[in-house]
Design a protein that fits this description.
Layout (H helix, E strand, L loop, with lengths): L5 E3 L8 E4 L8 H14 L3 E5 L7 H13 L6 E3 L7 H12 L8 E3 L4 E3 L1 E4 L8 H9 L22 E3 L25 H15 L11 H9 L7
Parallel strand pairs: 2-3, 3-4, 4-7, 7-8
Antiparallel strand pairs: 1-2, 5-6
């Protein structure tokens, strides 16, 4: 429904919808989960999600992570700028796209020359020491591409996420630290998340929390607690 913020995505010639919620604040985690569950249940493919300036924290990032993990086709653009996401929220998002169960990121079409990651807008959040955080994530192939020479159709690094605006898109950049992420490359998603939490805490960059239950269990448990739609 266009007035509700869901629009047909015709700009890039793809079949899907865009959910536009900029400035809907405060948007609670529960409300966001309810909206995303409704999209998922409808069978529609979400191509763009904009939650800019909605007052979202890391718990809401968890709701987006669950949705991304369950959607079988790629989300092409995610705008979470102007919120309260910490380094842990950014890490959750990076893990969700890089370790999608169906490995659908980046979106590829060799014949058309497409290697397109999801475009992430994450400026103006509460990400402390973002350059060091990206260094930690990058050591295990989880960091978003910060390049400014990429296009919507092709990422030069073939990354799962593209950080719109490059490193400056996170703002408040500090000095590059020497911290290392001591975690096996074969670690499970939960093990990697726990290791990231510990490392980010050492950086003083983690003020959020990461729910550990699999997305399917979380959706089932929380769906029963959600209020019925109006």
């Amino acid at each position: 429904h266009r007035r509700a913020g869901a629009e047909e995505d015709e700009a890039h010639g793809t079949d899907g919808i865009a959910l536009e919620l900029p400035g809907v604040a405060p948007l609670s985690e529960q409300s966001l989960r309810h909206l995303l569950r409704a999209v998922h249940s409808s069978g529609a493919v979400l191509k763009r999600l904009c939650c800019a300036g909605c007052g979202l924290g890391d718990a809401a990032a968890g709701a987006i992570v669950d949705f991304v993990s369950e959607q079988a086709l790629p989300l092409e653009e995610l705008d979470v700028s102007g919120n309260r996401l910490t380094a842990m929220g950014l890490a959750q998002l990076c893990i969700a796209f890089e370790r999608h169960p169906a490995q659908i990121y980046p979106r590829r079409d060799a014949g058309a020359g497409i290697c397109a990651p999801c475009r992430l807008h994450a400026d103006d959040n509460a990400i402390d020491r973002p350059l060091e955080v990206l260094e930690l994530l990058g050591r295990h192939g989880l960091g978003p591409c910060p390049g400014t020479g990429c296009s919507r159709r092709r990422c030069l690094l073939g990354a799962s996420l593209h950080l719109v605006g490059g490193l400056g898109g996170l703002g408040g950049l500090g000095g590059l630290g020497a911290a290392q992420l001591a975690v096996p490359a074969s670690a499970s998603t939960e093990g990697l998340t726990d290791a990231l939490r510990a490392q980010l805490a050492q950086l003083g960059a983690d003020s959020g929390a990461v729910a550990r239950r699999p997305a399917e269990q979380r959706w089932a448990a929380e769906r029963s607690a959600l209020p019925p739609p109006p």
